[in-house]
Amino acid sequence: MHPAIVSNYPSPETFEEIQFFNGKNYYRGLDWYMNFFPVPKNSTAKFLFEKSATYFDGELVPRRVHALLPKAKLVIIIISPAKRAYSWYQHVRSHGDPTALNHTFYQVLTAGDAQSKALRDLRFRCLSPGMYAHHLDRWLLYFPPQQISVIDGEQVRLDPVTSMTKLQHFLKIRPIFDYSLHLRYDARKGFFCQVVNGDHTKCLGRSKGRHYPTMDSQSAKYLQSFYMTHNIALEKLLKRLGYPIPLWLEEDLSDRPVNNQAVEMPNSL
Q: Rounded to two decimals, what is the model's pTM?
């Protein structure tokens, strides 16, 4: 929508995302990567962007991004790690993953060393990305805080206009684009969609905004305990960097241990 920002062409191989800086695509080279960013000579775009969900927690990604794009502006959108873990489980189920289809969410979360590698790998992919402070610290080894914007994913969902206005200030884009004229809540879809042709809305595809069954209480309790120390570390890190504390983080920490009370830790990764 924004005339100053152009995204990449979608990749047919990896669910639209390029996924260049992690995995095998990195070895296809820079020319392969840049072919996803064709910019016409008459374009008004000042920013090129791409998003790949697996970048944030990839161990090699920050170093690789910095080597190629040391002045890049990084946008990190975070939601409650418990919700993220459950969403990932449901996501791979929807794509026919046999391990997810044959195991409950709680069975995935509690998989131990004696379980199959496929089950343990799924557990890792559900839980590891939500250790936000650990991964953000890795990015901060290569990029200063001034180049990183941490955005509350719940605010993006409920109030995208405010989120996009803040992002424009972070990117120092002028003039400010008024997203209130271009986004409207679609009650049928359940989230905000782009306004087109004056009074119609164009929403993302059926794979976006799926409604899943409510997470079972046993899994919710497990995740609350598992992520407690990680969420406390995230709160401290965000405060140190001067970033706002997301509302979901305040809610997830509402049952934090009092003083130095020990936290019951489920089996770790």
A: 0.89
